């Protein structure tokens, strides 16, 4: 690790912890090693700039580590004409990377909550998915982190999150099963306690339970 290595705070909802972040030069050297490991020549013309591009792409693909979901959701408002029924944002597209193979999994998120202390801007629900999706994930963990962030910041009467995704580590490699989707969901509050509320969520999302 060279002298430019620096500590970075990873912003999760939990206690922030510090990791040592390698330098750009170290990241690029690692990419060159992987190119050679794959069987190609990192010094050939077409690959010379690839390590720099990969490092830049990683900054974007894993940009969620530098973002705080609490800040995304902190601004709520109450002027909604007394509306207190389900707010559902469905079909939020996301791209994440599985933490086992660092290969994409791609899908849609559906997020609902029952307001208690005000509502949040609708785009913020999509943004919170982005914050967590742009980290190394399992689909289960992604589901749990999204709903925990909503509960801790909005304090709703209940929340529901469903994710459906296709995992490239199951299609491009390994078991090679195409067209398989994985569904995960989590309910809290009224959604966890009341089967009717769950059924309303499924109906609005357009899925069977
Ligand atoms: N539960 C869960 N499993 C995942 C997720 N993404 C990938 N996996 C699985 O993680 C498992 C890792 O299994 P291992 O046996 O350690 O690794 P592997 O030899 O690469 O496994 P194969 O994919 O079966 O070739 C695989 O079964 C993947 O399908 C996820 O989001 N959630
Ligand atoms: Zn995987």
From TrEMBL:
Residues 28-205 form the GTP cyclohydrolase I domain. One of its GO terms (biological process) is tetrahydrofolate biosynthetic process. Pathway: Cofactor biosynthesis; 7,8-dihydroneopterin triphosphate biosynthesis; 7,8-dihydroneopterin triphosphate from GTP: step 1/1. Keywords: GTP-binding, Hydrolase, Metal-binding, Nucleotide-binding, One-carbon metabolism, Zinc. It is an enzyme of class 3 (hydrolase). It comes from the Bacteria. Zn(2+) binds at residues 98, 101, 169. Signal peptide: none annotated. The keyword Cytoplasm does not apply. It catalyses: GTP + H2O = 7,8-dihydroneopterin 3'-triphosphate + formate + H(+). GO terms for molecular function: GTP binding; GTP cyclohydrolase I activity; zinc ion binding. GO terms for cellular component: cytoplasm. Pfam families: GTP_cyclohydroI (PF01227). Its EC number is 3.5.4.16. Homopolymer. NCBIfam families: folE (TIGR00063), PRK09347.1-2 (NF006825), PRK09347.1-3 (NF006826). Belongs to the GTP cyclohydrolase I family. This is GTP cyclohydrolase 1. It comes from Devosia enhydra. The gene is folE.
């Amino acid at each position: 690790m060279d002298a430019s290595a620096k500590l970075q705070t990873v912003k999760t909802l939990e206690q922030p912890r510090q990791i040592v972040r390698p330098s750009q030069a170290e990241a690029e050297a690692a990419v060159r090693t992987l190119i050679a490991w794959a069987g190609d020549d990192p010094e050939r013309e077409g690959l010379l700039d690839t390590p720099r591009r990969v490092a830049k792409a990683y900054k974007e693909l894993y940009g969620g580590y530098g973002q705080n979901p609490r800040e995304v959701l902190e601004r709520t408002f109450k002027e909604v004409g007394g509306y207190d029924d389900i707010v559902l944002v469905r079909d939020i597209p996301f791209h994440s990377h599985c933490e086992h193979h660092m290969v994409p999994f791609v899908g849609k998120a559906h997020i609902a909550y029952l307001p208690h202390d005000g509502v949040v801007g609708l785009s913020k629900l999509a943004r919170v998915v982005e914050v967590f999706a742009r980290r190394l994930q399992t689909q289960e963990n992604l589901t749990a982190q999204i709903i925990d962030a909503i509960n801790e910041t909005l304090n709703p009467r209940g929340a529901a999150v469903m994710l459906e995704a296709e995992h490239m580590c199951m299609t491009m490699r390994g078991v090679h099963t195409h067209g398989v989707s994985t569904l995960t969901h989590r309910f809290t509050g009224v959604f966890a306690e009341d089967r009717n509320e769950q059924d309303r969520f499924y109906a609005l999302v357009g899925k069977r339970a």
